[in-house]
Amino acid sequence: MNFAVNQEVMPLYRVEPRYPAKALKRRVEGYVVMSFTIDETGKPDDIEVVDANPRRMFEREAIRALRNWKYQPQVVGGKAVRQPNQTVKLEFQIEK
């Protein structure tokens, strides 16, 4: 399985999503685009699915994986701040 990620801020730590068994069995590939906020501790928060294809196939696993990612918190004036309006696209592809 192959998971591609497109985004601006690079995570320090990534958890790969599980490929849903139903999708694997049917050999379905797809992607999920999520928006989120990086909180003061570097954890993704306020995760929302912006786009997904096919719908309701990969969202749950994509969200579960993103919840466990870790980012470098942004520091402004010596204080960690939230970074809203982040987006990430996770692509679910079966290795040929």
The N- to C-terminal Cα distance equals 9 Å
Secondary-structure element string: EHEEHEEE
Shape: elongated
Task: Return the average pLDDT rounded to an integer.
Answer: 92
Helix count equals: 2
Helical content stands at: 10-25%
Strand order of the largest sheet: 1-6-2-3
- Strand fraction band? 35-45%
Question: Using only CA atoms, what is the Rg?
Answer: 14 Å
Q: Could you name the ranges where pLDDT drops below 50 across 5 or more consecutive residues?
A: none
Q: State the total count of DSSP E strands.
A: 6
Largest sheet: 4 strands, antiparallel
Helix/strand/pairing class, anyone?
A: alpha+beta
Characterize the structure shown:
This protein is of the alpha+beta class and 96 residues long. It contains 2 helices and 6 strands, in the order βαββαβββ. A 4-stranded antiparallel β-sheet has the order 1-6-2-3, with helices on one face. Strands 4-5 form a two-stranded antiparallel sheet. Strand 4 (74-76) and strand 5 (79-81) form a beta hairpin.
Supply database-style keywords.
four-stranded antiparallel β-sheet; 96 residues; 2 helices; alpha+beta
Concise structural overview:
The protein is of the alpha+beta class and 96 residues long. Helices cover 16% and strands 43% of the residues.
